[in-house]
Amino acid sequence: MSTCLPVYLFTCLLNTMLRTSIVGGSGYGGGEVVRLLLSHPQVEIAQVTSESHVGQYLYNVHPNLRGRTSLQFTSLDQLAACDVLYLGLPHGETQKQIEKFAALAPRIVDLSADFRLRDLAVYEKWYGEIHHAPDWLSKFVYGLPELHREEMRAAKYVSGVGCNATASILALLPLARANLLDAARPVIVDIKVGSSEGGNSASFASHHPERSGSVRSFAPVRHRHTAEVEQELGLTNVHLSITSIEMVRGVLATAHCFLRAGTTEKDLWRAYRGAYKGEPFVRIVKDKSGIYRYPEPKILSGSNYADVGFEFDESNCRAVSLCAIDNLMKGAAGSAVQAMNLMCGFDETAGLEFTGLHPI
């Protein structure tokens, strides 16, 4: 085989160990990427950066990694070339340095929101700021494999996914794809989230006496992830409302929808089974009895699964569709590793086999 092949193609075709690096690895999302890649059979981690923890061992920040790695955090200016680069920087930072990052790695998975939206005007509307690399918006594939699997197989750049957007999209996808939604009626998605969604930077709102026991509505209207839902599903009348609850990990999206006249429960079953048949990480959860007869984020902690379920009020042609995920996994790091697997021709489930715990 000719060694003049691009490094990423040469590596993937030979099925050798892929060299990956993680920028911004001290955050929760970056830490989860590290955890997953340490167990990936075809990956080795080259570097993990953190400007605030240079020289410290990763397990000083991510104590669950003690005994699993002796890597130390490096600074961004020490970052070397690699096969795949994960970017876990705060919102707005990746777009300012994307040319530099692209020169270091032929494959990039960005966990931030910088390249999720394809339309510049939509980005500026929802984020209220200019974009520093607008020409790059069209180069990124939106990072939800259930929607863009084939595009990812040929992609060089994949964006992150919003955790609330992921749960909302997966709840609504069967109904939208089967054209069952009544376009004249709004879709209201009520989303309950855990505290880790706020990241690992402390604030007054995350101070334990203020956060513990709270049921706090922090984005009743105009949550930014709405733009992702509308973009990916082709909808224009979606409204997200976000409430934080007493939970560390997890998202539960409850989508309230009205359907086309004449829709039956059989139509819904056909839509959900059709949408998720063969999906390795989406499970339909709709049982007639038991405490886990609907999706429950608690039991998904640490896993890349998305549990989807529904209930139907045929007399009013109203459906309630639910999706539960771990926000740090299927809503961030898990989907990112799943995307890498697709980009490099690996088994899509590699490194993502953990099923979650029960009880927890």
Note down, in words, how this protein is organized.
There is one protein chain. The chain has 360 residues and is an alpha/beta fold. The chain is 29% helix and 19% strand. The chain has eleven helices and twelve strands. It has helices spanning 7-14, 28-38, 58-61, 94-104, 120-127, 145-153, 163-177, 208-211, 226-233, 265-276, 329-343, and strands at 18-23, 43-48, 84-87, 107-110, 157-158, 187-193, 216-219, 238-244, 251-258, 282-284, 306-313, 318-325. The strands form two sheets. It has a seven-stranded mixed sheet with strand order 7-8-6-9-12-11-10. Helix 4 links the parallel strand 3 (84-87) and strand 4. Helix 2 packs across helix 11 (329-343) and helix 7 (163-177) runs parallel beside helix 9. Mean pLDDT is 94; it is low at 1-8 and 10-14.
Q: Indicate the percent of residues in helices.
A: 25-40%
How many structural domains does the protein architecture include? Answer: 2
As residue ranges, the low-confidence spans are 1-8, 10-14
Order of helices and strands: HEHEHEHEHHEHEHEHEEHEEEH
Q: What portion of the residues fall into strands of 2 or more residues? A: 15-25%
At CATH level 2, the architecture of the largest domain is: 3-Layer(aba) Sandwich
What name does CATH use for the topology of the largest domain? Rossmann fold
Please tell me the overall pLDDT.
94
Radius of gyration: 20 Å
